[in-house]
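Exercise 7.
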Amino acid sequence: MKKISLIAASLLLSTNLVANSFDEAFKAGSVSGDITLYGEKQDNSGGNKDSGFSMGSIGLSYETGELNGFKAAVGFRGNHDFSEVEEDDYSDGSEKEAILHTANISYANKYLGLTLGRQEIDLEWLGDYHESAVLGITAIPNTTVVLGYTNRIAVADADAPLEDFDDFGETSEGKKIDYAAVIDAKYEGVKGLVVNPYFYDADNLANWFGLKVDYDTDMFGVTVHGASSNEDVSGTKDGDIAHIEGRLNIAGFGFNLGYITTDNNGGVGSMATLGENINPFDALRGGDGEKVYETDTETTYLNVNYEISGVELGAMYGEMEYGSDKDKEFDFTVDYGITDNLSIGALYVNLDAQDSDDDYDKLTLTVEYSF
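Solution. The predicted structure, written as tokens, is:
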């Protein structure tokens, strides 16, 4: 009888310790979020009607404290439109107004980290939120290897309609794209140098591989990047892309000068299907650059940054030559942090298209309170 009582007491004590540990992990957790107001207006040329909308967005995330290497995280975003210049400028009303974009459990030690569930991914050709498993291995000195598997994707931006979790659809041959997988490695053993080989496989669609090399010092930097796709769909041409960029920081100014070229027959193939990070108009300024990944396109661009009295100014000019045609885009941004938590930003985009009916001027305004 005494042995049973001792065992019961031990079990009760262990249960209390686990419960207390869980309580402490939850109490040590952190909450973050944002409240964002966004509006855009686009003045179109020719017979195209002007467009635009205004909206609000609320994001909220919570992550527990660590318990024996484990953490849990949840996050949601809710978006709602206030006005439209023309009907359906924001959306057709079929989208959800709130989604749970993050819900995962993670484990980490000094050799690896594993996250299972809904999570945000930001890799060279994989972005937004995914229902996925991601393993990061740091056991090799100066090297990080990421292995990822995903079968559903969602988009939860603060300046556009929400896109709830869905599968990757089908190819033009009617075959289902059941999953996408990636292996991405980064070596950083030399100061300022990042060597990043990668390989992606999208089921029944394509696989692609590439190598990106970045080198940066306080004054200058350079990026050399190339990628090629092997398309699985009959009749679809393989794609290629090459990108080179030079960077210079001098007298408070930051300069980016770059060149991008795509395959003469296949463009970038299917590489941009799940996300992309090369388009400089979007990556550097938040602009459009709609022709960057088109077939037989050569893009040249110059970007300039400058900060004065806490105001960040940025301007970019680029030309996209596709075949015998050419589009010219100019982007200008102004960003200012009113307080540590409250910021305001404006973007102006001017597109001078080959077909003058496709010309437009776009202005966006964003006010964000983050915590």
